Amino acid sequence: MFENISDILTFNECKQLLKVGKNTMLDLLHSGQIEAFKIGNRWKIPKDNILEYLYYK
Prior knowledge:
Layout: E1 8-10, H1 11-18, H2 22-30, E2 37-39, E3 42-46, H3 47-56
Antiparallel strand pairs: 1-3, 2-3
């Protein structure tokens, strides 16, 4: 299911994948429920962290 998804997702890609809104996505990132990092002012979310979040959700 996730084979066609790149290893690093953008904020919007992750938001669409999880089917959540902007504020919910920001809450997930800021609370540490999904580990991510920033390059400049752009969020980058590793695919493995999304899978881990979905597994333990």
